[in-house]
Design a protein that fits this description.
The chain is mostly beta strands. It folds into two domains: 294 residues, 5 Propeller (Tachylectin-2, Chain A), CATH 2.115.10; 153 residues, Sandwich (Jelly Rolls), CATH 2.60.120.560. The chain is built from one helix and 35 strands. The two termini are 42 Å apart.
């Protein structure tokens, strides 16, 4: 974008069209020299309805090209009320998208496919559903995830069982057409369930002989809830977790992540949906809702925990360095670090005061009344992000959220932070391992600036650098031309 968007909350570098509704990332695939990111998309408004698959592609994860909408509901067809979540694979010269065919007159979402032979510009749907019926004993069924393993194709489908447990169901195929159901790949622990639960958008990543199963928790009462990662090993066609399920992201606005394995270096990349944290009326006034996170690299530590960091390509978004400060701060005297733009990338090393909380305040109003706090508490062993004062508009959600320190950084040792803020979204990484994502909506006029603070009786040291995030080429709304309206005969 050559000029700032009229809406000050519309992200500059996070992936989304300039208008309308988006939610889950879908169909992440590398094909013919490009990364492809599809996403749930309503081309007609900022509400969750009329769901299509929007489509962007990129040669480098930095410059994104909008392509025509890939999938659209077929009137009176098996997906008449929405082309819901799934994924895609690259096979020779074609891409095959697997998705959930939604109709309001059935509770399950059958699995079906569409195929493109022109690098994703046009798509042809299969004439019949691929997996038309769910297995017996299920009460929820949707969101296929397909991958190649050894000499076969495998597919997980998100599900809920009639005994109240969540499940990721496993299928296998030799040709992408004929699928054998092999039973639950993994289920939730019934003893830990306080009510019925389902798993949406299952994702599976392997790291040598270990693996990670990522699921998005959904309940009949409240719908989408949070995302959980289970780590362990596969044994006899079943996933055996060897640790307690953990949050994949510690923030309130992160859901339905999707994985892509890069060619060549075999990194695992992840995008997720960051939903709105404001009243629906405000999103309707703005004309847009939802954003995708920046791509993250996902790895497994020697201790068996999932670590995340911004994809290395994101460094190319850094423009001018706007801030570079080192020093210390005391309770009596906060330190003004300098101005930042509404879209910036920050790296910091903090040595917190062990007698209180220490950290950074992002101030977004001239009088200092609007701010976002990022505070370390060595005694409690966690980082807190507080958005209670982050918007002067009462329609924005508040709240305070925490993520744990790595054990090696407690207490009194240097703590590394990476903070990426893009107008209305913040992604906060702690020591390239744990991460917290949230949305916030500053309204204050005037420049944004950073401040170092502490509540302890000792001093807290800091070293902080920040760069403007530069905007890539303008992102346009995906067009509706070239969409596959109907299955082939």
């Amino acid at each position: 974008m050559s000029a700032l968007p009229a809406d000050p909350h519309l992200p500059a570098v996070h992936l989304r069209p300039p208008r309308n509704w988006i939610n889950d990332p879908n169909g992440l695939v590398f094909h013919n020299g490009h990364y492809h990111v599809f996403f749930q998309y309503n081309p007609h408004g900022p509400q969750h309805s009329n769901v299509h698959w929007g489509h962007f592609r990129s040669p480098d994860l930095i410059k994104w090209e909008p392509l025509p909408v890939a999938l659209a509901p077929t009137p009176d067809g098996y997906d008449a009320d929405g082309c819901f979540s799934g994924n895609a694979v690259s096979v020779d010269d074609r891409m095959v998208a697997f998705y959930s065919a939604h109709r309001n007159d059935r509770w399950w979402q059958p699995i079906t496919t569409a195929e493109s032979q022109d690098d994703g510009r046009t798509w042809t749907k299969r004439p019949q559903l691929l997996v038309p019926e769910p297995p017996a004993g299920t009460t929820m069924y949707r969101d296929p995830y397909v991958w190649r393993q050894d000499d076969r194709w495998r597919m997980l489908v998100g599900s809920a069982l009639d005994d109240g447990r969540a499940a990721a169901l496993l299928y296998e195929s030799g040709d992408l057409e004929n699928w054998a159901y092999l039973g639950p790949f993994h289920t939730s622990d019934a003893a830990a369930v306080t009510g019925p639960i389902g798993w949406e958008c299952p994702q599976y990543a392997t790291f040598g002989d270990r693996s990670a199963l990522i699921v998005s928790d959904w309940t009949p009462q409240n719908g989408p809830s949070h995302t959980t990662v289970h780590t362990g090993r596969e044994k006899d066609g079943r996933f055996a977790a060897d640790s307690t399920p953990a949050p994949l992201d510690h923030g309130p606005d992160f859901y339905a992540p999707a994985l892509l394995r890069t060619p060549g270096d075999d990194r695992w990349l992840l995008w997720a949906w960051a939903w709105e944290a404001r009243d629906d009326s405000w999103a309707c006034e703005a004309g847009w809702a939802g954003v995708l996170t920046l791509p993250r690299e996902v790895s497994l530590t020697a201790e068996g925990t999932v670590a995340q960091r911004p994809a290395r390509e994101v460094l190319a978004l850094r423009g001018a360095r706007t801030l570079h400060r080192t020093g210390y701060v005391t309770q009596a005297e906060p330190v003004e670090l300098g101005q930042v733009s509404p879209a910036f990338d920050l790296a910091a090393v903090l040595v917190p005061d062990t007698t209180g909380t220490s950290g950074l305040r992002l101030i977004t109003s001239a009088d200092g009344s609007e701010y976002l706090d990022i505070l370390l508490d060595p005694a409690a062993g966690h980082l807190t992000v507080d958005r209670s004062h982050a918007s002067l508009d009462t329609r924005a959600r508040g709240g305070s959220y925490t993520l744990p320190f790595p054990a090696a950084q407690r207490p009194g040792n240097p703590v590394e932070l990476r903070v990426i803020v893009d107008r209305s979204i913040a992604e906060i990484y702690l020591a390239d391992e744990q991460v917290l994502t949230l949305r916030f909506y500053p309204l204050g006029e005037g420049p944004w600036w950073l401040q170092a603070r502490t509540t302890g009786t000792l001093r807290s040291e800091f070293a902080v650098e920040a760069w403007d995030l530069t905007q890539a080429d303008a992102l346009r709304e995906p067009t509706l031309t070239g969409r596959g309206w109907a299955p082939t005969a």
